[in-house]
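pinned: reference chain
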Amino acid sequence: MYRTLRNGAAICLLIAAAVGTWYWSRTTAPAEFEPVPARSAPLGYYLRDAVLLGTDEQGRVVYRVSADLAEERPDDGALLLNGVLVEFQEDEQVPWRVRASRAEAQPEQSYLELEGEVRLESIGGEGRPPTLVETEQLRLEPDDHTAVAEGDVRLTVGENTLSAVGLKAFLKEDRLELESKVHGRFLP
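pinned: its structure tokens
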């Protein structure tokens, strides 16, 4: 009888352990993530707080692209970025940084297509007021240190503001060229 009671207690203990293990090991989705709807397209990867580094031929870091979210589009290999910041390394002596809501980078291409509240900002120094260029779309070629906007552009230097259509920026040279329809008042 003692043996039957001991075997019964052991079986109850094993059943309780199995139920407890199942309960604690089940997976639940965190409250902050919504389930992803099923898609017919293949899934790519995504990264939160992504940092991409651009290097030169010697492997030295030249620029850094930071994004709140980076997502691969597997059908064409494009990289989609949200909450984008591009900064050049101090050694490059490029006194500019770029911010945008979104960007897209295609494989085998050396530029970023930025869009949505694009801000090209000079890093002030030597008693010069900072320069700010605002536009909705900008093509940034970080390896060449150039940027091109074809649409409306607003240029602010200190208290002075100009508007134009089209811009070429030579970032390493710290030079901007407004293309056409330049309007505004620029006081010395």
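why pinned: The radius of gyration is 27 Å. Strands lie at 46-55, 61-73, 78-88, 96-105, 112-122, 131-141, 146-157, 160-170, 175-185.
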